[in-house]
């Protein structure tokens, strides 16, 4: 009888730990996906950005003047 109770107790503990791990993973997943909903912090408007296909067309067009390409600005990191 005591062995059955200790096995039941161990099974309950394993179930509880598994449930806690699954719940914490679900919470982390939901909070990570909600981060995608934030507004973009790009310094350019949508009209100023070229799609890759448009850029390739402009680069291959011999009559078109060379496009001006600017690198993406780096964010400033504060170091203590």
Describe the protein:
This protein has 80 residues and is mostly helical. The protein has a domain of 34 residues. 52% of the residues lie in helices and 0% in strands. It is built from 2 helices and no strands. The N and C termini lie far apart (62 Å). The model has no long low-confidence stretch (mean pLDDT 78).
**Low-pLDDT residue intervals, each spanning 5 or more residues:** none
Helix content: 40-55%
Element pattern in H and E? HH
Report the C-alpha radius of gyration, rounded. Answer: 27 Å
Strand content: under 5%
Q: Profile the largest sheet.
A: none
Secondary structure: number of strands: 0
**What's the N-to-C terminus distance?**
62 Å
SS-derived structural category: mainly alpha
| Average of the residue pLDDT scores | 78
Quickly count the helices.
Answer: 2
Shape category:
rod-shaped
Short description:
By secondary structure, this protein is an all-alpha fold.
